[in-house]
């Protein structure tokens, strides 16, 4: 069983703008409680700015603190859920890849470091001064989305682009990221991550990915080492383990079924692989999570 993936259409009113959703965060939580009160993934790109509130945001088994000035970015397929200690406020918007990239034919979402690589952190913390500045633009985006003014779509697209550019500038100033500019190595890494996402169930060896990229295994390892200081095998293992954790926690399948889904030869081998990397068996991991 795969993890429930929410579709953008589940959130949309019948508005002229397809594949885009904008709301205040407090209203979003109230309106969509039945959709978002359990771990889930999305088929869209999501950006949230918090102006008030506290709690935790878990993204793919990493916990992040929610507080004023926190911005979170989610790509399609990432699993997450919210847990609030105090009432949150802020803004949320999300959109499909096509919504953005059909308007900017020469500029893709992967140009932004928070959407580029799985190695880059999915959050950003703004200073009080920057929070004030950015929240004005989120507020303007929300207002424009609610109204039906002339050239509404053009203004919305420009506001989203402005927000992404401003957030990228802060992100690249404060966080060690894996892509600044468009070097051949970073392009290979991007292609590799895409290929791993598609093939990791059945293809678990670097040789396959090197062949797909028309380079040697040795060169592929050099690229991964130089860009993110890991090996190709590590990247593949990390993706398999992430999916294993998602399925162990979020699916109702038994562990042997999960081993089959991940195309391991048998459960004993899967369990040994999981324990060697995580330090506990799949059963121990499931019990820990539901303790």
Explain what you see:
The chain is an alpha+beta fold and 291 residues long. The protein has 2 domains: 5-174, Regulatory protein AraC (Jelly Rolls), CATH 2.60.120.280; 184-289, Homeodomain-like (Arc Repressor Mutant, subunit A). The chain has 13 helices and 8 strands. It has helices at 25-31, 33-36, 97-101, 113-116, 128-146, 152-174, 184-199, 206-212, 217-228, 232-250, 255-261, 267-278, 282-289; strands at residues 5-6, 20-24, 41-42, 45-59, 62-66, 70-74, 80-95, 123-125. Strands 2, 4, 5, 6, 7 and 8 form a 6-stranded antiparallel β-sheet that branches. It has a two-stranded parallel sheet with strand order 1-3. β4 (45-59) and β5 form a beta hairpin. α8 (206-212) packs across α9 (217-228). It is globular, with a radius of gyration of 20 Å. Pfam families: AraC_binding, HTH_18. Residues 190-288 form the HTH araC/xylS-type domain. One of its GO terms (molecular function) is sequence-specific DNA binding. This is AraC-like DNA-binding protein. InterPro entries: AraC-bd, Homeodomain-like_sf, HTH-like, HTH_AraC, RmlC-like_jellyroll.
Q: Which helices and strands, and how do they pair?
A:
Layout: E1 5-6, E2 20-24, H1 25-31, H2 33-36, E3 41-42, E4 45-59, E5 62-66, E6 70-74, E7 80-95, H3 97-101, H4 113-116, E8 123-125, H5 128-146, H6 152-174, H7 184-199, H8 206-212, H9 217-228, H10 232-250, H11 255-261, H12 267-278, H13 282-289
Parallel strand pairs: 1-3
Antiparallel strand pairs: 2-7, 4-5, 4-6, 4-7, 6-8
GO molecular function: DNA-binding transcription factor activity; sequence-specific DNA binding
Protein name: AraC-like DNA-binding protein
Keywords: DNA-binding, Transcription, Transcription regulation
């Amino acid at each position: 069983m795969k993890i429930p993936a929410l579709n953008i259409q589940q959130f949309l009113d019948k508005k002229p703008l397809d594949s885009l959703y904008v709301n205040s965060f407090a209203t979003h939580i109230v309106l969509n409680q039945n959709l978002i009160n359990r771990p889930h993934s999305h088929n869209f790109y999501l950006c949230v700015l918090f102006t008030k509130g506290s709690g935790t945001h878990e993204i793919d088994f990493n916990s992040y603190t929610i507080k004023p000035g926190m911005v979170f970015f989610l790509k399609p397929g990432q699993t997450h859920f919210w847990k609030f200690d105090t009432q949150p406020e802020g803004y949320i918007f999300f959109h499909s890849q096509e919504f953005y990239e059909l308007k900017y034919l020469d500029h893709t979402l992967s140009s932004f470091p928070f959407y580029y690589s799985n190695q880059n952190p999915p959050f950003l913390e703004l200073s009080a001064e920057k929070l004030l500045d950015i929240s004005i633009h989120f507020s303007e985006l929300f207002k424009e989305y609610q109204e039906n003014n002339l050239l509404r779509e053009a203004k919305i697209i420009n506001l989203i682009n402005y927000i992404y550019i401003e957030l990228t500038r802060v992100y690249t100033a404060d966080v060690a990221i894996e892509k600044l500019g468009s070097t051949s190595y970073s392009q290979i890494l991007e292609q590799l991550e895409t290929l791993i996402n598609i093939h990791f169930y059945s293809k678990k060896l670097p040789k396959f990915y090197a062949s797909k990229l028309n380079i040697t295994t040795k060169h592929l390892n050099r690229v991964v080492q130089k860009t993110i200081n890991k090996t190709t095998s590590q990247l593949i293992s990390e993706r398999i383990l992430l999916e294993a954790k998602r399925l162990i926690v979020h699916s109702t399948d038994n562990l042997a079924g999960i081993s089959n889904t991940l195309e391991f030869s048998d459960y004993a081998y899967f369990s040994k692989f999981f324990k060697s990397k995580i330090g506990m068996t799949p059963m121990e991991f499931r019990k820990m999570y539901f303790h």
